[in-house]
Amino acid sequence: MTTEPSLDWWDAQLSADKRALAFVSFAVEQAEQLAPLLPDDRSLSDAVRAAAIESFWVNARLLAEFLVKGTDSRDWQANDFAPGWSTTNKRAKDRLLEAWVTASRHVMHLSKDRTPDKLNAVAPATHDLYRQVAEDCRTVYEEFVANIR
Predict the structure, then answer these.
(1) Does 11 score more than 70 pLDDT?
(2) CA distance 146 to 64
(3) Residue 45 to residue 102: CA distance in whole angstroms
(4) Are 39 and 113 within 8 A, CB to CB?
(5) Distance of CA 124 to the CA centre of its chain
(6) 38 and which of 59, 62, 92, 130 could share a cystine (Cβ 3.0–4.6 Å)?
(7) What share of the chain is helix, strand, coil (3-state, %, to 5)?
(8) Per-residue pLDDT tens over the stretch 79-121
């Protein structure tokens, strides 16, 4: 009978900061893998498509906060790994900040922007938008990784 390694064993293998970086890398991969399916891959059931859309935006928001927006000291931030680092790609940064707003308003919170008086006031997310956000996540992430201490 084999036993799984203990949590202490796992802690010794991968420190908290390394686990955090693994989550960031996973979020980039998720955004990249989901983008080609969105917004309307008809091979997905409605429930799976909705889950994929929400997962995409949750990961995009996580990456925007980690890489360009920052939060408070309770959360890991790019500067914890690359002190003083900031992306040099202003266009990608601006788009990621806008992705953060979109995710916050339309996925993370039940904002009034999510429930407008007129439904045509909300522009639907396009395939090109998903692709661009995923590309920006990868671009800024790779720049960040090149600057880790």
Answers:
(1) yes
(2) 17
(3) 23
(4) no
(5) 19
(6) 130
(7) 70, 0, 30
(8) 999 999 999 999 999 999 999 999 998 888 777 777 777 777 7
